[in-house]
């Protein structure tokens, strides 16, 4: 599976593409950071992030895009910009028919390090080790984008199985309720 990982942000937006193989094997294909000047208008900054992400999608043809879910930050303005950057990237992926998944920072940390509260240094060290890189990816946004892609490669099969099981359980529930309704009609009839 080819996955594009995104650590969204307006000042720095980490982008990566990895490919998973048998077992837990993951290979990095590309990694980078899109930077936008803080003095530019918000709309122009979002357009720059979207344009870069679209170019990556068109070049690398990922099957899925994994984006960090923004759930809380101390600075509301930063959180809004991060969420908006993630939103324009999700939109670009959806327009191309690419599946989008959002993962929380703790899910990513747990998947990559085994500890949902690992620090950035631990995440970077494990990303470097998992991918067999000679040098740790820098800045942290690049390492985080790779961690998101790795997380998705490892979690997606389980998420798909859980969704299929849930859909199957829903079908069984509907058939049961239908049979029950038919039996009630017979009893009343």
Give an account of the 3D structure.
This protein is an alpha/beta fold and 189 residues long. The protein has 5 helices and 5 strands. It has a single domain (2-188), classed as Ribonuclease H-like superfamily/Ribonuclease H (Nucleotidyltransferase, domain 5, 2-Layer Sandwich). A 5-stranded mixed beta sheet has the order 3-2-1-4-5, sandwiched between helices. Helix 3 packs across helix 5 (140-188). The protein is globular and about 75 Å long. The N and C termini lie far apart (56 Å). Pfam families: RuvC.
List the defining traits of the structure above.
189 residues; alpha/beta; Nucleotidyltransferase, domain 5; 5-stranded mixed beta sheet; 5 helices; 19% strand; nuclease; metal-binding; DNA repair; EC 3.1.21.10
Rounded mean pLDDT is: 92
Rg, Å, rounded: 20 Å
The level-1 CATH class = Alpha Beta
Unreliable runs: none
Structural class: alpha/beta
Largest sheet: 5 strands, mixed
Number of helices: 5
Instruction: Give the termini distance in whole angstroms.
Output: 56 Å
Helix/strand order, N-terminal first = EEEHEHEHHH
| Fold-level CATH name | Nucleotidyltransferase, domain 5
Number of strands: 5
What is the subunit arrangement here? single chain
What is the domain tally? Answer: 1
**Strand order of the biggest β-sheet:** 3-2-1-4-5
Helix content: 55-70%
The gross shape turns out to be globular
Cofactor: Mg(2+)
Enzyme class: hydrolase
Organism: Nocardia lasii
EC number: 3.1.21.10
Compact description:
The chain is of the alpha/beta class and 189 residues long. The chain has helices at residues 42-60, 76-95, 105-113, 120-131, 140-188; strands at residues 2-7, 12-20, 26-35, 64-68, 99-103. The chain has a single domain (2-188), classed as Ribonuclease H-like superfamily/Ribonuclease H (Nucleotidyltransferase, domain 5), CATH 3.30.420.10.
């Amino acid at each position: 599976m080819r996955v594009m990982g995104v650590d969204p942000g307006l000042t720095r937006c980490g982008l990566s593409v990895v490919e998973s193989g048998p077992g837990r094997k993951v290979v990095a294909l590309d990694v980078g950071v899109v930077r936008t000047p803080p003095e530019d208008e918000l709309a122009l900054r979002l357009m720059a992030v979207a344009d870069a992400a679209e170019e990556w999608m068109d070049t690398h043809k990922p099957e899925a895009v994994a984006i960090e879910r923004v759930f809380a930050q101390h600075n509301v303005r930063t959180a809004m910009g991060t969420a908006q950057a993630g939103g324009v990237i999700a939109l670009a992926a959806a327009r191309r028919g690419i599946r989008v998944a959002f993962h929380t920072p703790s899910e990513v940390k747990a998947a990559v390090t085994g500890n949902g509260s690992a620090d950035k240094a631990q995440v970077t060290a494990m990303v470097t080790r998992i991918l067999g890189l000679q040098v740790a990816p820098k800045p942290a946004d690049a390492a985080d984008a790779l961690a998101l892609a790795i997380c998705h490669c490892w979690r997606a099969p389980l998420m798909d199985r859980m969704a299929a099981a849930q859909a199957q359980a829903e079908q069984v529930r509907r058939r049961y309720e239908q049979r029950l309704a038919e039996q009630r009609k017979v009893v009343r009839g």
